[in-house]
Amino acid sequence: MKKMKLSMMAIAFIGTLVSCGKKDNTTPTPPPSVAVTDSIEIPFSTNNYALYSFKNKMRVTNSDSATTKWDIGIRFVSIILNSHASGVGNAGVISKNGIYDSYLTAPETGYAYDTTAATPAINASFTNGWYNYNDVTHAFSPKAGLFFVIRTADNHYVKMEITAVNYAGYTPPNPTPTTLIYKFRYSYQENGRNF
Amino acid sequence: MIEICETLKMPLRYIFIFFFLCPIIVIAQENTNDSTLKLLDEVVISGTRTENKVSNLPLPIEVINSKSIRQSGSQKLLEILQMQSGLVVASNPLGTALQGYPNPFGEGVQMQGLDPAYTLIMVDGEPLTGRNAGIINLGRIATGNIEQIEILKGTATSLYGSDALAGVINVITKIPVKNKISLNTHYASNNTLGINASANYIHKKASLQIFASRYSSDGYDLDKNIYGKTVDPFTDYAFNSKLLFPWNDKNKLTISARYFSDNQRNNYLIFPQSEPMIVNGNTIERDKSIFAKWQHKINASVNYFATLYTTAYTNNAAVFLERKDSLYERITLDQLLVKPEIQFNIGKDPAALFIAGAGYNIEKVNSSRYSSTKHLNSWYTYIQKQFHWKSKTNIIAGARFDKNSLYSAQLSPKLAIAYKINPSFILKGSVGAGFKAPDFRQQFLDFSNSLIGYTLLGARELGNGLLTLKKNGQIDNNINIEPYLDGVILSPEKSVGINLGFDYTMHNNSVFKINFFRNDISNLIETYNLPFNKINNQSIYSYVNVNKVFTEGGELVASHSFEKNFSISGSYQYLVAKDKEVVQKIKDKQLYKRDPITNETSLVSMSDYKGLYNRSRNTAQIRLQYNNILYKTSAFVAVKYRGRYGFNGLNGFQNGNDILDDPREFVHGFVLANATITKSIGQFTEVQGGMENIFNYTNKLQMPYLYGRGIFININFKL
After folding, report:
1. How many CA atoms lie within 13 A of A86 on its CB side?
2. Which runs of E-coded beta strand occur in B368-470?
3. How distant, in Å, are the alpha carbons of A4, A19, A67, B665 from that of A9?
4. Nearest-5° angle of CA A170, CA B103, CA B709?
5. Do B601 and A145 touch (CB under 8 A)?
6. Which residues lie below 8 Å from residue A61, measured CB to CB, with a gap of 6+?
7. Mapping DSSP to helix (H, G, I), strand (E, B) and coil, where does residue A160 land?
8. How close does chain A come to B548, measured CA to CA in Å?
C-alpha cells in the first residue's frame, strides 16, 4: 500500500514536470521568457551575501559585488537587491500575493529597493517576512502564494518564487546546521515584461 | 512482564523498611460512608465565593473528591486532572523544540480549548503565582492533602479577576476535624518515591494540621540516542500547615502556610560553536505562602471575612560547562504577591446571598531577563447577588472592577441563570466577560539572544531597550526610533464566554449533563517585528495586541451508580477552536498553501482549515469505581481518549502557511488508561497497587511528559 502511494506520488511528480515543460514550450507570447528551476547552497552563518544572476542562471563571485553582474543576494534569510544601498545596479522588487503561474505581466513602475542596510525592500523578519519560521522545528518555510516580481540590475524582468529552504549538515540535536539550501523557480524575460 | 517484576523488587524493599520503621503506628480506618459517587450534592466554594451545593449553581462545575483521588492512588495533580472530562494536558510547544532536552516550561491544563495560561490555578481560593511561559508547574501542589478539586468551567473573571478566562481550578486542602495521624508511602517506576505524613490535633475548639511530603524520581529517558534524559531526576518537598481557631461563636481565625521546593537536575548537551559540550546544573523552584483569614459574624444575616495572602515564588536555574566547570547560563525569576482582601456576605439563605468584596494586589517581580525590579499594583472590587425568582429560577448576577497601574480599568460582568423545569431537569446558562492581564514577560522582557543576535523587548521596555541599543551602536544612526520611545500600552486580552446546558437526574442514581460553550477572545498578545533591524541585521521584537480567536464546543457527562458500590461515569467533549483572522483571510481568498511535493500553490478553502494547533476535536473519558465491602477491596479504572490534534511542522511537514490545513500535520489520537486496586488490611492499613498508562503510549517528540507503562505501589496508614 505504502509502495503504491509512493509510486503514485512519483507519477504525479513526473506528470507535473512534463506539464511544466509543455507549458514553457507553448507559451503564446513572443518572445518567450526562460523558465528556470534552480537551487543554491549557502553557508548558514557568514558575512557575505551569495550573489545570483538570473540572466546567467548562476552564482556570481563576491569580487563582482560592485558590478551589475548580479541581481539578488542571499545571506541567511536576508535578501538584497542590486541597487541603492546594496549595489550599483538598477534592481527593484514588488512582493506579490497570488498564484505564480497565473501572473503574466510585470508592471513598469512600483519597484522597491533597499533604502538602507537595515531597511531592505524584501521583508525578512521573523513575524512578517517572506517566510514562516517555526520555532518548534526551526524550519523556514517560504510563505505560500508569495512571489517576487523583480527588475534585474540591468533592467530586465523576472518573476521569482522561493519554493523551499532546507537545512543541510544538520544533525539533531545540534541546533546549528552548516548550510541552507534555497530552492527557487523563476521566469526571465530578456525582451519586455510578459512572462 | 520481566520488566515489571524487576521493578517490583525495589518497592518490596522499601515496604519492609516501612513496616520495621513504623511498627507503632496503628491505624483507625476513616469512616468511608460515602461509597456512592455524589455528583450533585457536593458543596463547592469556587462558583460563588461562598459555600453552595453544585445542584444550586447555574454554572458548569465539577468536583474531584478526596475519595477519587485516594482510590486512583495517583501522586501527581497533572495526572489526576488529565483523566478528567474536558481537560487536556498541553505543553508549551516551545518545550518540544528542544529535541529530547527536558522541557523547561512543563505542562498545564487546556480547558475549553484555551491554553493553560487562561486558567486560574488556586489553592484554597488564593492564586498561585510563578507562571513560566504561561504555565504553572502543577507538581507544586501535593496531592496527599487535597480534600477536593473544584473545576469551574467558563469565564470566572467577575469573581477572580485576571487569568480566569477559561475557568478556575481550585484545590481545596483538608480541614482538620479530629485527631488523626496518617502516613502514606508511594513507590513507582523510575525509582519514584513519595512519602507524606499528616497530623491533626484538636484542642477544645482549635484545630491544627501539619502536612509534609517528599517526592522524588530518577526521571526517564525516551530517546537513548540523545544525550541526557527526557525528564531529569528531581526531588520535591512540600510542607503545609493550617490552624483553625474559633475565637467564639462570632469570630474565627484561620492561618495557613505553604512551602514547596523542587530541585531538578539539569544535564544536557549544548552546541555553543557546533561542537557539543555537556552542561550540568540545577533548577530550584520555591514557593512559599502565608494566609490569614479573620471571619466575623456581625449578626444573623451579615458576616465578613478579611484575608491577607502573601506568596513568594522563586525560580533559579543555573547550568555549568562540565569541562571547564564554569557558569554557562543562569536564569532567575523572583515574584512576590501581597494581597489583602475583605468580603461581606449578606443574607440568611446561603443560596441567596449578596456579597461585596474589595482587595489590593501588590506585585513585585525581578528576573535576570528584566532590566530592573518591576512593580505592579492593582485594586479591585466585586459584587454578586444570588437570588431565587418564582421558586423555579435561580439567578446569579455579579461584576468585578479591576484598576491596574499598567493598563486601562476592566469591568467584568457575569450573569448565570438556572431554571428548574422539574426537580430532575435543570436548564443552566451563563454569560460573562473575562480578561487576562499582559504578563510580566510581555511588559518587561529585555532579552538579547547571544547566539543568533535578535532582541526581544517587552511593550513597556521598548523605549528604554531601543535607547540602550542605539547607545551601544547596535542600531544604525539613520534610523528614527522616536515613534517607539513611548512604548506600547498593551491592553489585556479580553473574552466573552457563554455556557448553555442542562442537568438531568434519573432515579437518583443517574446523572446526565450537557454543556455547550463558546469563548470569543480578542486582543490576543503576539510578538511582532519592528520595521528596522539591528546593525547585525537581526530583528527587534516586541509585543502587540492583534489576534482574535474563538473556541466552541459541547461537553457531555453521564454517570450511573448501579448499586451502592459500583459506579461508572463517562464524558465526551467536542471542540472547535479557530483564529478569526485566518477565517477572514480564507474568505478574502488571501491564504495559500504550497503542495510540498509539486511546489504548486493554491488557495486554502474553508474546509481545509481545521483550526488552532494542539486542540483535539474529540476527547472522551470513562471511569469505573467499584467497592467490595466484604473483601474490603476497591478498584478504580480511568480511561482517557484524546483525538488527533494538529502539530505545526509535524515530521518536518510544511506547506507555506502557518495554519492547520493538512492531514499530514495531525498527531494520531491515543488512549491513556490507569487502573488501581486498593485493599484494606486490618483496620489501619491500606495497600494499593496500580498501573499507569496501561497501553504503554509514548510520543517522545510531541508529548515527552508521558512515560510509558508504569506501576506503583502505595501503603497508607491511618491513626
Report:
1. 31
2. 374-389, 393-404, 410-422, 425-436, 446-448, 455-457
3. 8, 15, 44, 18
4. 105
5. yes
6. A51
7. strand
8. 17
Which residue carries 518490596 as its cell?
Answer: B12
Q: Which residues in chain B have their CB less than 8 angstroms from residue A118's CB? A: 475-476, 478-479, 532-535, 537
Q: Which three cell numbers stand for residue B269?
A: 548537551
Contacts of A128 in chain B (CB under 8 A): 528-529
> B371: Cβ–Cβ under 8 A, 6 or more apart, which residues?
B444, B446, B461, B464, B465
Residue B111 CA to residue B108 CA, distance in Å, equals 10
Residue B325: predicted pLDDT:
81
How far off is chain A from B100, nearest CA to CA, in Å? Answer: 8
Chain B hits for A180, CB-CB cut-off 8 Å, are: none
Q: Do B271 and A175 touch (CB under 8 A)?
A: yes
Distance CA A87, CA A93 (A): 14
Walk along chain A (195 residues) in steps of 10 and give the mean pLDDT of each run.
36 37 48 90 90 96 96 94 96 96 95 90 86 82 96 96 88 73 95 92
CA-only gyration radius of chain B, Å: 26
Report the C-alpha gap between B571 and B84 in whole angstroms: 9
Can you give the pLDDT at residue B351?
A: 83
Which of A78, A126, A143 minimises the CB distance to B537? Answer: A78
Joined grid coordinates for residue B489: 500600552
Dist. CA B637–CA B68, nearest whole Å: 10
Residue B529 is nearest to which of A117, A128, A163, comparing CB atoms?
A128
Question: Per residue in B44-54, pLDDT tens?
Answer: 999 999 998 88
Strand-strand pairing, B52-53 and B43-44: antiparallel
Instruction: Summarize the confidence of residues B197-216 as an average pLDDT.
Output: 95
The CB-side HSE value for B492 (13 A sphere, CA atoms) comes to 25
Are A97 and B528 inside 8 Å of each other by CB? no
DSSP one-letter code for A100: G
**How many Å lie between the alpha carbon of B594 and the closest alpha carbon of chain A?**
5
Q: Given CB atoms, is A145 within the 8 Å cutoff of chain B?
A: yes
Q: Retrieve residue B359's grid coordinates.
A: 482587595
CB contact under 8 A, B541 and A145: no
Q: Each residue of B127-159: pLDDT tens digit?
A: 999 988 889 999 999 899 999 999 999 999 999
For B208, residues 6+ apart whose C-beta sits below 8 A from its C-beta are B176, B200, B201, B202, B241, B242, B243, B244
Q: Does an H or E element contain B3, and which?
A: helix B2-21
Q: Pairing state of beta strands B710-718 and B180-188? A: antiparallel
pLDDT, residue B306, reads 97
- Residue B231 per-residue DSSP state: B
pTM of the model: 0.87
| Under 8 Å between Cβ of B301 and B348 | yes
User: CA separation (Å) from B409 to B82, B309, B404?
Assistant: 35, 23, 6
* Chain B residues near residue A176 by CB distance under 8 angstroms: 271, 274
Q: What is the mean pLDDT of residues B227-252?
A: 93
Q: Do the chains contact at A132 and B529, CB–CB below 8 Å?
A: no
CB pairs under 8 A between A and B: 125
Closest CA to B420 of B397, B390, B398, B384: B390
